[in-house]
Design brief:
six-stranded antiparallel β-sheet, single chain, two-stranded antiparallel sheet
């Protein structure tokens, strides 16, 4: 069985990410030109922002199956989680996170590349899965996320 080529492997994530923009054609054009594509939050998700150096450990505290897309900027020392709309209210008291308002543009590389210091630590896979704000808040907190007792 032949393995899919690089472009095919990430196409579902790229298609979903581009569809989150009001102008998917401009997103694709930016990526074709090897540029970051600005995608405004608010129509499909919000963005929870944290400092990369001090919050990277939260990523490891969230099981892969509960993680939505996470983008990192190594130069700007930023992490961005794609979260559902209710995240603004649910994460309001988490000092280490800043939920950006609807309409805020996240400059994104395609899912299979790193570009201008940005890379997907958890890539969009096309499913539309986002990180649950309660899970994210628990992972950011001092004890980290723990599976509910009934799941153990």
């Amino acid at each position: 069985m032949a393995l899919p080529n690089f472009a095919q492997r990430y196409e579902a994530g790229d298609a979903w990410l581009a569809s989150c923009s009001v102008r998917p054609d401009l997103v694709r054009e930016a990526w074709t030109n090897e540029a970051l594509a600005p995608i405004a939050s608010g129509s499909h998700w919000l963005v929870a922002e944290a400092q990369l150096a001090t919050r990277y450990d939260a990523l490891a505290r969230i099981p892969v199956e509960l993680r939505g897309p996470v983008l990192a900027d190594l130069v700007q020392d930023k992490l961005w989680w794609l979260v559902p709309f209710e995240a603004a209210e649910e994460l309001a008291d988490v000092r280490q996170l800043r939920v950006q308002p609807p309409g805020w543009s996240l400059r994104c590389p395609p899912t299979g590349w790193h570009l201008d210091g940005r890379t997907w630590l958890t890539r969009p896979d096309g499913s539309g899965q986002l990180t649950d704000p309660a899970v994210l808040a628990a992972a950011i907190g001092p004890g980290g996320y723990r599976l509910p007792a009934e799941a153990s």
